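Please check this.
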Amino acid sequence: MDNLIQSELFKLRKNRSFWTLIFIIMGLAAAFVVLSYIDSRMDQEAEVKGIDYFMNTIIGNNYMIKFSLPILAGFFIASEYSTGVMKTIASSGNSRLRIYMAKLFVLSFGGIVISLVLPFTLLTIGTLLSGFGELPDGSSLAYVLRVTGLTFLYAIAFASIVAVFSTIFAESGKTIGMGLVFFMFIDTILFLLGNFAPFVRTIDDNMVFKLSQEIDALNMDNGMLFKLIAVPVITYIVLGSLGAWIYTKKEIK
């Protein structure tokens, strides 16, 4: 298993789409902070602090993760079916369960790295230009750590979803297209269905798609925090198991 993970990590390091996504997000974030800083100085407005950039971008970062992961999965996993690499790996003597879990683990790691780029680029450059700043209750560091941990969990939950897509479609184009369409419309579909079927609304309220929009709350009770932690973990386990089952039954050509 260790050798499989090391092999997948090596491929991730060499994956151009992974680094392209990172540099694009980093460049956009850096440009946004610098332009905002220049604009505030020219208009003699109060400078936005690093922690404010961080707090205000968490929800937007969720969309960045959702749209980046299908692209990464398409070029990192699904493309191996068309190039014949997947067939070679599947016939290497390792169990398909181990192969899939290694790929999911490294895809999740890639998702975690991507999830850090936007908020921490904004936080770092904003802090360098205008200072770190403070939240109203003075718990800025605790807030950053809590949100970062939750961001990790939702990044791997979304990774488990796109990993299933890459296994089902086995083509980079279809994986990217279906992944993007799914994440763009799943919230709207669940909302509309919830208007006709109350149980769908209950399900939606307890799924990663809607809960991911709650992780930036300044204050939350222990019950809400437990839900925000438990749901992505359960999602990762369930979708990871589903993807592994599909992969073990799949005919690889």
Summary: The CA atoms of residues 207 and 231 lie 7 Å apart. The two ends are 24 Å apart (CA to CA).
